[in-house]
Amino acid sequence: MALRSVLACSALCACLGFCRLASAQVSPPASADVAPYPTAAAPSEPRPPSAEPAGPTITLPAEALGTERLNLTKAAPAPRAEPDTSQTTATTRAGSSTGIGGYADLHFSVDRVTGPGRSDATVDFSRFVLFVSHEFTDHLRFYSELELEHAVASSADPGEIELEQAYLDYQVAGDALSLRAGLVLVPMGIINQSHEPPTFHGVDRPMVDTVIIPTTWREAAIGAHGEPLPGLRYQLYLMSGLNAVGFSAEQGLREGMGEAALARTNSFAVAGRIEYEPSLGIVTGLSGYYGRSGPNAQLYDAAGISGELSAAVAGVDVDARAKSHGFEARVELAYFHIGDTQGLRNAADSAGKNLGIDVGSKLLGGY
User: Fold this and answer.
1) Distance CA 76, CA 73 (A)
2) Given CA atoms 223, 215, 298, 345 in this order, what sign does their dihedral have?
3) For position 65, what pLDDT does the model report?
4) For residue range 97-152, what is the model confidence (pLDDT) as tens digits?
5) Is the distance from CB of 231 to CB of 284 less than 8 angstroms?
6) How many Å apart are CA 29 and CA 51, to the nearest integer?
7) What are the distances in angstroms from CA 151 to CA 104, 148, 158, 283?
């Protein structure tokens, strides 16, 4: 009998936060009317104007000015030209609209054997993640997330380098409507879109959010999101569908994700989520997913004759969370139904060899 305990290095799990890339800037005169520019971390909230330049400044010594300074002090002041605010604004944006952040996750685990045998300890740098965002204009924004898993990625090592997110956001109607296109996290449940270590309880992500909802689940997508009313948020996407060949009893839908990696996309899926936050820290959410996974798989019968199954996948998730005075509570229930599971069990490759797709028709979990 073995008992497993896991210790996480909390210092490395903490998010690094966003840091600004500031370049040298020309500070306009106090009378110049330069519109404040929103920061990359909060595009909807303008940054208050500051009398001090955001970037580094250079002060020249008096001797560096030589006689030119004396001549300027004796001559009558020339009329001051109006500042070119368009150039100044562009310089400010170039210096303040890019954000970089990330997090890391280091695990130390021990398999303790209570009977005959010896305990076994392992250390794993499970994740190293970098965020890069950039605001091109007040309305156009880019965001990306790149992840290295298990420290080393090669054919002989367990690690992987994965692009988890990379999309463009275009704000159409303030906070009420924005368009999004690119590699997007599927809006299902609590953890899939907010999966940084400080956002869940425990060292590892909850089983519901790894087996039932295959976190981190991402697909190529186009859609809309926004907050039309205070506290009411929505997301709706058309995205590449799942591939039924990857389904299994052990990992559910996980290996069926397309991830925009040469993914077969003969059938699309629709995913959406609506959240309501009536007061700060109290959030309820409802997520849904529907798509056909069969057309994205190459399926044959035992005779090697090509066939096609719908293998429709429908999912729903209901969740709620509350946080107050240091106390936090969560509840989540996720359910998926997979159609044509008997046909998937009989499916074969082009040579007539059974593919071994053994998955249940119902996936259900909660906490």
Assistant:
1) 8
2) negative
3) 41
4) 999 999 999 999 998 877 787 888 999 999 999 999 999 999 999 999 999 999 99
5) no
6) 9
7) 11, 6, 9, 35
